[in-house]
Amino acid sequence: MAMDNLKQFVFALSAAASLGFVCIIFVLTWVLHFKEGLAWDGGLAEFNWHPVLIVTGFIFLQGIAIIVYRLPWTWKCSKLMMKFIHAGLNLLAFIFAAISLVAVFDFHNAAKIPNMYSLHSWLGLAVVILYSLQLVLGLGVYLIPITPVSVRAAFMPLHVYSGLFIFTSAIATALMGITEKLIFGLKDPKYKDSPPEATFVNVLGVLIVVFGALILWIATRTSWKRPNDQAFHSLHTNGGGEANTKVGPALSQLSEGLEAEAGGDVRRRSNKSDDQVD
Amino acid sequence: MAMDNLKQFVFALSAAASLGFVCIIFVLTWVLHFKEGLAWDGGLAEFNWHPVLIVTGFIFLQGIAIIVYRLPWTWKCSKLMMKFIHAGLNLLAFIFAAISLVAVFDFHNAAKIPNMYSLHSWLGLAVVILYSLQLVLGLGVYLIPITPVSVRAAFMPLHVYSGLFIFTSAIATALMGITEKLIFGLKDPKYKDSPPEATFVNVLGVLIVVFGALILWIATRTSWKRPNDQAFHSLHTNGGGEANTKVGPALSQLSEGLEAEAGGDVRRRSNKSDDQVD
Fold it and tell me: Which domain holds residue B14?
């Protein structure tokens, strides 16, 4: 990564990480200072685990899991180790989300509030189901050694797209959840009277959106991607360039698969680029 | 575009267009059948223009504007004409959004409901302001002939990212709006009692999300992008390939700018690809 590019990356990463921490502090302040605190008693303090676990797990941890391959300091680590970290963070985020659902269902059942009536609950459940599917397919395709490279390559665009789509949907669902909770939770003064809690949690919503925007920016910059191990290795042993001509037939075949997958040949043939201007 | 690829594109496009129309029918059915209809009287029938104009303009038209360069049937049209269509659709979507805001403020003022207290209103106003900024910058950079190619190239990644971010945020904000309206608008039975209107509008929310997902899928497939005019021309006169070597110095220079912009050289040097697997 060139120095200019690295500076921009470090700036975006620091901003995302700081914002993520601020979001966690905000959601904790919300439930501990403005609301009933945290407990596992079937009451409102149990419900409060729902926003806390969603923000810390399903938004912050999932966001970090998405960009973990982008950290240049990890490019000398083996790809397999990075895959375990990526999968591990996502598994942790999934566990947080699952417990946060139990908290809500417990609370609803104890308070005799119906489950699954709102658009928030429909989309939320759909996102968690898609996330579990993404986890299982991701493990099966990229961590089980017998899966052929051709399958891994063919599945990659869908894996990347689904990952970003699920992350974005999780944030959209959280914003709907904040809206619901502020309407139902604020009685006198009401949400529309803008008490301090309303303004504070609106700010949390805005911070979550900016955190999501930064993660999506980092994840979609082509020049910030981890280089192929093969190219990276070549860069550090042969002084860069012409990696393909210096590897054996097996690696070369693999590389062709990757190139075809990434639309590299299509782009070269028709002169397409990521972002065209004229 | 290869035949297989074209079939997949036509399928995705048909699905997106049909879903978009179904969303418009759903939002019209909501306000005309379940609610007070449409009028400009300061009452609830004026409020109803808000969801109608947002879904038809700020979601459907904006979505179509985003993918208008992807239609292979337009690749023989001049890029300038396509730019006018892209800008025109976005301008129309902006006008729809602006009128939809007037409808809400009118309704709030007549009913003595405070404005701008909810997270929905904060994010909604931010999205409309960002959208107007994107429109003005887009016109200035890509439609005013004097803007240098280097500026156009440098601004393109931001233009593309902002466009997709604003579209996604518009959808997230609409989902929050649906949540608010179902809670405030349903009194007896309430939202939590799942009357037909609640289920119907929840389905509208899900359809909007799927429409958004399809637009984002179409917009981010590299192989579905409009070829550079230069490459397309070469493909149809010289039988394809080697476009760069057959053009004069001016075009060649332009092409270099584009390649550098798109990270083409970086990718070639370090063997990075859009989606890496190993």
Answer: 3-226
